[in-house]
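Closing statement on the citrulline sub-project.
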Amino acid sequence: MFTHAIVRIPCENFAQGLTTSGHLGAADYSLMLKQHEAYCDALRSLGLTVDVLEAQASYPDAHFVEDTAVVIDEIAVITNPGAPSRSGEQVSIEPALAKYKAVARIEAPGTMDGGDVLLVGKQFFVGQSERTNAEGFKQFARIVAEHGYQAVSVPVGEGLHFKSGVNHIGSNRLLVTPDFAQCEALEGYEIFVTPEGEEYAANALLINDTLITPAGFPGVRAVLDATGLDVIELDMSETRKMDGALTCLSLRF
Ligand code: CIR
């Protein structure tokens, strides 16, 4: 059961963050703040205590807190974010997590973004991406093995992060983009594939028994409704313009 989440208020210059989604238009700050508040409210409505960290103008991507740590029952692993402009975001996350957990760190030359890390039961899938390198994976696998977790490295291909393409939606189920539909590492799971053009909605956030999904993806919604899951939809338009999605905006534990 998750009981806590950590989020960070987006900073005024958040639209200067990294993005490849310029075709979606310029991101709007007041709308972003409104959508971020709705996100926090949704987490609270599911019973989580939400710690809200201050905006950090020196890091326009810093509200994507997921990339700065991986939190499990036993420990918080502070990452070393792989994009040069995001290197250092992890420094102010550490004290926020150290209040709750013992801490370990991914050290250079290892790099890792939390968006590449998916946990299902005691099994970690770690995307091998432009952000997470082999050394980062090696360090991470060693740290979590001490607590009884396995980790497997999976190439991400085109997408930004592993969780841009694969997410756990409860029980033995994974929601994936077509790119991951035949992925060998995911054999044994029940695979639900996003319909054409709805790949963005593969990033869904499971909080206990409820799945939060981005609004505006009816094909994915139909797939999810067939599973009987409780679903909350949130408008993610401004986060999406900055290449972010639902999981990126919080650390849950
Ligand atoms: C970046 O490119 O790093 C940010 N603009 C978006 C990060 C999204 N984070 C995530 O998917 N975990």
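The first helix runs from residue 29 to 45. With this model delivered, the sub-project is considered complete and its resources will be redirected to Aim 3.
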